[in-house]
Amino acid sequence: MKETDKSYGIKRIEMLFGLMFLLLFGSALQAQTISGKITDESTGEPLPFANVFISNTTFGSTTDIDGNFSITGQLPQNFELAASFMGYYTKFRNISLSGREQVTVYFQLTPKIGQLDEIQLKARRDKKWERNIKRFERVFLAVLDDPFLKQSKIVNPWVLDFEEGREGGMKYFAAVAQDPILIENQALGYNIEYHLQRFVETRRGFQYYGLVNFSELEVTEEVEEKRNATHYGSLRHFIQSLVHNKIDSLEYEIYQVKPDNLMRKRSNDFTEELNESIVKIHRDSLYICDFPNGLTAIVLPYKIEIHNKKQPWPNDYYENVYHSISWLEAPQQYFLVDKYGVLPDPGQLEMAGVMGRERMARFLPHDFEPTREVKDLMADFDSTLIQKTKWNSLREKPHISLNKSFYYPGEAIWFSGDMLYQNPIFADTLSKVLHVDLYDRNFQAIASEVFPIRNGKVSGVLVLPTDLKADNYVLRAYTNWMRNYESDGFTFVPIPVLGSQELGIAEVDKERFEIDEDIEVQVTSHFEKNLWNTKVKLEINILEPDQEIIGGSFNVSVLDADLNPSLGLQSDIEKSMDWLLDAEKSINYDEPKYPVQYGISLEGYFSHRRRQLVPVPITIVQGELEDYAIVNSDSSGYFYATGLVFQDSTEVSIAALNARRRSFGEIRLTSYQRPEIIQYYPRFSYQKVPIKNQEMEYAFNDFMSGKYFELEEVTVETIAPKSMAENNYGYGSPDRTVSSDFLESRPDLTLDRVVSMNMPGGSMGMYNWGLNAGEPLLMVDGARFFPSEEETVFAYLSTFVAAEVESIKIYTFSAGTFGLQGFAGAILVETKKGRRGIQEDQFFDASQFQKFKLRGFSSVPDFPVMNNYEGVLKQRSVIYWNPNMIWDKERISIPIEFEMSNQTKRILVKIEGISRDRDPIMKIIEIAVYTSN
Q1: What angle do CA 405, 408, 412 make, to 5 degrees?
Q2: 923 - beta bridge partners?
Q3: Which GO molecular function annotations are given, in alphabetical order (predicted)?
Q4: Which residues fall within 8 angstroms of residue 789, CB to CB, at 6 or more apart?
Q5: Which domain holds residue 631?
Q6: pLDDT of 117 above 60
Q7: Distance in angstroms (rounded) separating the CA atoms of residues 336 and 349
Q8: Do residues 586 and 384 touch, judged by C-beta distance below 8 A?
Q9: 128: which DSSP letter?
Q10: Across-strand partners of 697?
Q11: Is residue 316 a part of any domain in this protein?
């Protein structure tokens, strides 16, 4: 690289590398030997037939009867030497030969104590584990559309265990292995022994690494061809070409990716982006330094885009590019590679695109050398699966849990819902609206309601008409997004409606209600009868097997056992979770037809007598500025907005405004078209028996009258309240926070650049799956900024410098908290002076707007829980219902209290829910009413 035009940062790195060069010396070319001995750490006895191998290569050996080993060959200069033996923990040493012809290494292996054997491990595997191993293989072995996936398998999957949780507000999925993972790769002809050290996946990516031992299978001509093709399409080949200055312009083109210009919308046209968002560079533009110890440093101060013109690929990024594209970025602005083109520390380089698809099924030993050159590469994907792979992880499905199994005309169906996700990593970016319909045997809708989904949970109530005929009905629950997959994610629940003097009896396998042995549910009870009624105190205890409490949520229903002789007609949560094991599915269209709903949504068309074939900004205002957004129509005038949050109904004002804030054209809204009710009628299997002289209260209107207590109680704390700014103005934790240290280190940087530097790819990154999101919400010192054509959000941010600002909080995945205005994300800025330049009280002139009435979320009252009731309570089928019970470290015992009729002699306590690491819970406990009075 020329000495001119070098940044100060690059010069510092060069100085560092120069110092390293002086401290290192040359390596010999002759064969080298690693020898040593392996013994038991506790006894000192030798371990015969133990494995010793150089990680990520085919170099390896086994110990003799005395525990000795020897490995000879043209060995790497720097490597990890590992020793393993059945029943012992694997150990490794970092070895640097530095020109030495012989090195001696001793290992003392530690025995595993109390390790479960293979039979015990297999016995512990349940359906949840089956779901997790499937998810693990998608990340670890190969992506779903890679044809090598079908030719690779994990031989001993039972050694794996999994964990899910949240860290820093982000969900993660992690795996650990009790023993080495054994992989049989028929595609490339290797048996692989993988000693997993770390595996973690988040919504931003994944990372795994470990010690790897390769052994050869039979090498056929087909296997040899696949090995060669895999090598020439790999990251390793590109780095080798880069290091040895063999970049062929007919094979690779390299582009520098410029930071996103937030004032310019990026296109998918390659010719338009060239010299705008990407600039072509040559190998000489990169500083590459060889060290005598065999390592090479490549300075990479910016992100690069690599085009492999010999590898065909669909035009899924640029509409006019049909070869593979990859992106590389070095967080430390440089990375080191060995003579094989391999990174000793994989964390020094972040990959995306086609090179980011490389998994174990395409992993070659580092000492592999191709036998011949491959001129034309085959695309390493199965075209029949590529769309399925893209969309399968975004599938979702509601599980519906009812408060009881049988209903009466005029009664309310109280329900709770848990959203199931094929990939929980994307849960925060998927639907926030659940549609619920009730239909009859003639497939006619009886009722339709809409309920909000919050943190993957939903609760609701559906009131049956008083004149409803006693018959069998079906409740259908779905999200708008799942309509892209036909009825795959739809949930159908049988709803039998009985006559007023009837009971329903069904044969149910009671063993279903003990579906998770790891989590124990206990209920203690106390009954106290007074002159009129019976006071009940229950305590629900959730006991997890580990000392570290995971926590979770559940619903609880307390029923009169004599009025509910049968429960469980509907599917329990464990059966619903079988859907997670279904075959992968894709959407039924080239692109999604039905968008994700982040709240109450509206869509319509803008028209003008002077027909405009360009996008038009559409201003939408809820009420008197309770919510506000600007969305763009497409060239046909169609627009869509989502994120409104209100109950029952509200007035919305909509207009297209010109530069003088005058409206033009006409707005026409289209009504939401619910999916047709498919000819599906679940099987009902039950008998009816008459009630003997029974007077009970079940009608919703009667049920909701009288004195009762709401479920939630308010706890007064003595802790000093946080300020509005400290509490993020009630909007919850942000997805990303720009620290004061970052701001103080760059006092002259404008805030539009600060936001770009702190977001992946330099953009807001709100996942709205292809929708035109418009501009993000900006709040400065708690007051909203209202953008216009003259001053956009990022143009206004450019008027601030970092020195003026105390903190910046950015919401992307959780931006639905802000309603419609947060559809494109949200930015909260807290200045040091406060209240700079924004008027909090904005006057809304509605004279320029058309007005529309919108239906919102259905109201869900609290279930009427009777306490201290003065009078005689009638016997109730459902005595208590709470859809939102939580347990965690501070709350593993949950008390509930209520009053019920003295006529109730037995109660059923039905508990159903899910832990935070996706363990299902289902239990029904019968308790006899016993009082000392």
Answers
A1: 75
A2: 911
A3: carboxypeptidase activity
A4: 617, 659
A5: 600-670
A6: no
A7: 9
A8: no
A9: H
A10: 876
A11: no
- Tell me the two tokens of residue 385: 């699966």
> Between vectors from CA 261 to CA 255 and to CA 264, what angle results, nearest 5°?
110
44 and 65 in a single domain? The answer is yes
Q: Is 306 strand, coil or helix?
A: strand
Q: Are residues 404 and 499 in the same domain?
A: yes
On whether residue 715 sits in a domain, the answer given is no
- pLDDT, tens digit, for every residue of 700-721? 666 666 554 444 433 333 334 4
Strand (E) or helix (H) holding 487: none
3-state secondary structure of 653: strand
Pair 454, 510 in one domain = yes
DSSP string, 584-640: P---SSSS-SSPPPSSEEEEEEEE-SS---S--EEEEEETTTTEEEEEE--TTSEEE
Reading the block at residue 322, the tokens are 């049909």
Cα(806)–Cα(808) distance, integer angstroms: 7
Angle at 182 between CA 93 and CA 184, to 5 degrees: 125
CB of 649 closer than 8 Å to CB of 634:
no
Overall domain count for the chain: 3
Question: At what angle are helices 235-243 and 221-232 packed, to 10 degrees?
Answer: 60
Question: For residue 57, which of 36, 78, 39 has the smallest C-alpha distance?
Answer: 78
Does any domain span residue 45?
A: yes
Nearest Cα to Cα of residue 389 among 206, 143, 582:
143
Q: Beta strand pairing status for 875-876 and 696-697?
A: parallel
User: Could you give phi then psi for residue 745, rounded to 5 degrees?
Assistant: -80, -10
Q: What is d(CA 679, CA 873) in angstroms, rounded to the nearest whole number?
A: 43
The amino acid at 506: A
Q: How confident is the model at residue 346 (pLDDT cuts 50, 70, 90)?
A: confident
Tokens of 305: 């885009």
Residues 295-314 have pLDDT tens digits of 899 999 999 999 998 888 88
**Do the Cβ atoms of 333 and 301 come closer than 8 Å?**
yes
Shared domain check, 490 and 417: yes
Residue 249: inside a domain? no
Domain with 52 in it: what CATH number?
2.60.40.1120
Q: Looking up tokens 């964390």, which residue turns up?
A: 347
Residues 636 and 487 in one domain: no
Among 610, 645, 670, where does a domain finish?
Answer: 670
Last residue of a domain, one of 57, 78, 109: 109
The pLDDT-based confidence of 813 (bands split at 50, 70, 90) is low
User: Could you say which DSSP state residue 570 is in?
Assistant: S
CA separation for the pair 684, 496 (Å, rounded): 8
Q: Which three-class secondary structure state does DSSP give residue 802?
A: helix
